[in-house]
Design a protein that fits this description.
340 residues, Methane Monooxygenase Hydroxylase, Chain G, domain 1, 3 domains, four-stranded mixed β-sheet, two-stranded antiparallel ribbon, 10 helices, 11% strand
């Protein structure tokens, strides 16, 4: 938020039996057209502080501007820098260099843009480029982004299932290509969280009851992104070594993913139990069998990521419903040889 221009000290007054009040600085209030009866809005921030906005300021979005200075010999950092500013919620990003923008730098900028949603080059000169986010944050809420990410992961699982049946490499290449699209939505999810915390009034328009829900949403989104990475690694391995893939293994991963979605979206207790049992049974085998097989190891990683969806749901529940009931999980079997 930056350093304050000035600090006003006010003593808290009590009004009636249950209300506290403080006065507003007169000059500040008059400069913003505040008078008796004016409506103001108080926003509670994650750090516990309060932000006061007037009726006219409510909904006004401050456009953040960022600058990337390209230093010769460090061009490789350019793509990541542009993406980082995009994720942080910057609306205008200026890329500049003293020596002039080389063809390589321009190509790196365009490569970064291909991985981002709603960013365009609006101005270009000999030694600079100006990028602007033209996407309206309110048009893509958290749930819509997560919906799309779930569809992409499910599509990759479908391709792997087709490969297990038909052994056609085109299905593996499809999985690999889809990974960039999944990353694009994850970057957008990060950006929406930054926008939400910068503009508290947008939380509901982005599908949240309150800002804090953005954190478990991001955790779930990161889980989906890592699922996509794992499936891409599996596809690359199968493509390079031309190995087969068991249909039953893919179906198990597919079922685990369906349980993960139900667990996070609706808190489905039966889906959580089924997923927990599935995960336990998969790893209740000789560790050497899994560690000795890249395919089984990656499938195990995917199942573990599905379990992370339960953790994301628990975090979301803790935010939305502070009273958490803990029950013994009947899905977990006892150790072999023991009695319940």
């Amino acid at each position: 938020m930056g350093e304050p221009l000035r600090i006003y000290a006010r003593r808290v007054q009590r009004v009636g039996y249950s209300t506290f009040s403080v006065t507003l600085p007169k000059k500040w209030a008059m400069s913003r057209g505040i008078e008796k009866g004016s409506l103001v809005y108080l926003y509670e921030m994650p750090d516990g502080s309060l932000i006061l906005r007037t009726e006219s300021e409510r909904g006004r979005v401050t456009r953040l501007k960022g600058l990337v200075r390209v230093v010769r010999g460090h061009e490789v950092e350019l793509e990541r820098s542009v993406i980082a500013l995009y994720e942080a919620g910057y609306d205008v990003i200026r890329v500049s260099t003293v020596e002039g923008l080389s063809g390589r730098v321009r190509d790196l900028v365009r490569k970064a843009l291909s991985r981002l949603s709603g960013v365009e080059i609006v101005e270009e000169g000999a030694n600079y480029m100006v990028l602007e986010v033209v996407l309206d944050a309110k048009n893509l809420g958290f749930h819509r982004i997560l919906d799309r990410m779930e569809v992409l992961v499910r599509s990759s699982l479908n391709d792997l299932l087709e490969y297990s049946l038909r052994r056609e490499e085109a299905f593996l290449k499809s999985v690999i290509r889809r990974d960039d699209e999944l990353d694009k939505f994850y970057f957008l999810l990060n950006r929406q969280m930054a926008v939400c915390f910068r503009n508290p009034e947008l939380a509901r328009e982005l599908g949240l009851d309150e800002q804090r829900e953005a954190l478990p949403m991001l955790y779930y989104g990161k889980t989906l992104e890592r699922m996509g990475d794992t499936l891409t690694q599996l596809a690359r391995y199968l493509l390079e070594f031309r190995e087969s893939l068991e249909e039953d293994l893919v179906k198990r991963m597919y079922r685990a993913f369906s349980c993960a979605i139900s667990s996070f979206r609706s808190g489905d207790a039966s889906a959580m139990r089924e997923l927990t049992l599935m995960h336990h049974e998969y790893f209740n085998r000789n560790p050497g069998e899994i560690l000795g097989s890249p395919i089984l190891s990656l499938a195990g990683n995917f199942l573990s990521l599905c379990m992370d969806a339960i953790d994301a749901r628990v975090e979301l529940a803790a935010v939305k419903w502070p009273l958490v009931e803990v029950h013994e999980n009947p899905a977990l079997p006892t150790k072999r040889g023991s009695t319940s």
